[in-house]
Amino acid sequence: MQLEQIIGWLGTALVVVAYVPQIYHLLVKKCAWGISILTWIIWLIGSLLLLAYCILRRDSLFIVVQSINITAIVTTIFLARRSNTICPHHLSVVEARGRPAVRSARTPK
User: Fold this and answer.
1) Is 2 left (phi over 0), alpha (psi -120 to 50) or beta?
2) DSSP character for 101?
3) Quick one: which of 38, 48, 54, 87 could link to 62 by a disulfide (CB 3.0–4.6 Å)?
C-alpha cells in the first residue's frame, strides 16, 4: 500500500469517527438541540454531488468516503427529526443563559 493510500484510508477512518459523538447523542439522549436540519440537507446534497464525481472518476477511496458521509448524514437527519427532548446538559446551558427551556413530555427534569 502506498503512502497516499494510507493517508486516504486514515482520513476515511477519521470521517467515520467524527460522526460517532453526534449520532450517539441523537440516538441515546434523543436530543437534537441546536442542530440545523437545513445545514445537514445542504451537506447531503453536496455529498451526493461529490459521490457522483467520484464515481465518474472511478476513485474507489473517495466513493467509500462519500458513501460513509451520506450514510452518516442521512442517519443524523433521521435521528434529529425524531428527537424530541432536550438533554440535561443542553437544558442547563439554556437555563444558564436565562432563557426558559421548552420542555417536551419526555424532557428529563
Assistant:
1) beta
2) P
3) 54
Full pLDDT tens readout for the chain, 109 residues: 899 889 988 988 898 899 999 999 999 988 998 889 999 999 999 999 999 999 999 999 889 989 999 999 999 999 999 887 888 888 888 788 876 555 544 444 4
pTM listed for this prediction: 0.75
Residue from 42, 28, 43, 39 nearest 82 by CA: 28
Counting Cβ atoms within 10 Å, is residue 64 exposed (0-12), middle (13-18) or buried (19+)?
middle
- Measure the CA angle with vertex 22, ends 13 and 89; round to 5°: 140
Domains present along the chain, CATH in parentheses: 3-96 (1.20.1280.290)
**DSSP string of 10-36?**
HHHHHHHHHHHHHHHIIIII-B-TT--
